[in-house]
Amino acid sequence: xxxxxxxxxxxxxxxxxxxxxxxxxxxxxxxxxxxxxxxxxxxxxxxxxxxxxxxxxxxxxxxxxxxxxxxxxxxxxxxxxxxxxxxxxxxxxxxxxxxxxxxxxxxxxxxxxxxxxxxxxxxxxxxxxxxxxxxxxxxxxxxxxxxxxxxxxxxxxxxxxxxxxxxxxxxxxxxxxxxxxxxxxxxxxxxxxxxxxxxxxxxxxxxxxxxxxxxxxxxxxxxxxxxxxxxxxxxxxxxxxxxxxxxxxxxxxxxxxxxxxxxxxxxxxxxxxxxxxxxxxxxxxxxxxxxxxxxxxxxxxxxxxxxxxxxxxxxxxxxxxxxxxxxxxxxxxxxxxxxxxxxxxxxxxxxxxxxxxxxxxxxxxxxxxxxxxxxxxxxxxxxxxxxxxxxxxxxxxxxxxxxxxxxxxxxxxxxxxxxxxxxxxxxxxxxxxxxxxxxxxxxxxxxxxxxxxxxxxxxxxxxxxxxxxxxxxxxxxxxxxxxxxxxxxxxxxxxxxxxxxxxxxxxxxxxxxxxxxxxxxxxxxxxxxxxxxxxxxxxxxxxxxxxxxxxxxxxxxxxxxxxxxxxxxxxxxxxxxxxxxxxxxxx
Length: 587
Fold this sequence. Notes:
The chain crosses the membrane at residues 295-315. This is Sensor histidine kinase. With 587 residues, this protein is of the alpha+beta class. Helix content is 47%, strand content 19%. The strands form four sheets. The protein has a five-stranded mixed β-sheet. It is flat and about 120 Å long.
């Protein structure tokens, strides 16, 4: 049959049998191997990310332990051991003092409560936990409390449990609480009461931000019984149970759920005994690999189609070059140089085809190299994010301790300066976010202005005109500080209490207009300032150049910073940016 077959058909058959089929099989095998390697590498990277995030969560728990320890050894609590029999008025004063003391620790999300035994019903005038969200409560029978046995058995060690929310709770909504038995520091066997810190799932869930870049990822913080303590998904509520294979304490494993393959990454903390579980569909992990593979498949199919077509018309003139080109194609491996040079430019179609194939493989190799470098940079960014999450926690906690210590010593003004400094650093870091709400940027600027007012002994006045509607829009962080600093240093700091500063934010026609004005008496070179912003003067104004570049990086060349003279006296600087509510609106 082969002897009697026309040469054109024989060539087509040979191409199909010895070129097309082997290449497709090689592509299939390589695709599967790359998919397996991709899953393994991503699983390893995710395990490192989960470990680092779990360490951050453990620091949150450690922070609660330090605060509860501080409360337990405080004079307000320890003096309750020796409180003698008192009148109802005295008991009311004790209750009121304790309630005020707890309110210093409670926030909108995290609430501190104290429970005491009151078998003689001496504190019957105090509302119970079914009426109030937090406070000081007295119970005639502590065993009626669902969490009492567990916290009592802990003997003063803090534990984390899921409990019902305090206050009006018709739907039996649950919350996560840090519970601790308060013992006398003079006699460890004497139990004073029980401290309950409810709502801690809120700060815990804030530490899930590094996982936001993984589409469809489910993050779950579990206790030792696999009960959900905190999550970023509505699929699992707080207090629900989740199935974790027995013996899985740390590592990566895959499961099939509803026909979908799920990669699970788990890590168990030696400090708290909690588990951090990340669940992500395998399909979303390898989606980029699949897209590239489909593109390669289409390129190969198109190429084979052209090759067969050309062989049908030019069999005599291209048989030998095609054979050579087939050998090159069969020997090519993605990422490996071909080792051949391009032919001189010619009108010969085979020469052109050969040159195009070489260019295509070079581009494919370059794409593979670029992808490899991108993955390395991505991992470096992940490590950088993890590092920036560790140090700020230590710094914030230290500044918080210094703030309270200074406040307790009576230096209220110094304490407020420390608080403002902490606010500036916290918003400046913003957990790695580049865009923040206008209100957060205004808080940052207000803290900075307060520090400058104190530094220059209130030598100027600051006025704020912020539209309520504009507060919810996003803007690059730390834009206002360099502009305000220039207005103070070059405009009003030496005006002997006559200096004035105006900061205004308004929303108009889909834009945000943010202006900083001063009434400085010294003449300003507006032409030089705008030349700096336009890149015509590169040796000055690094601060405003940085502001200009960051604005245009986020929003384009049509937006930015400008300077002009005020009609009366001084300088006006204003920023124009689009009014956006979500970073996806910029894409």
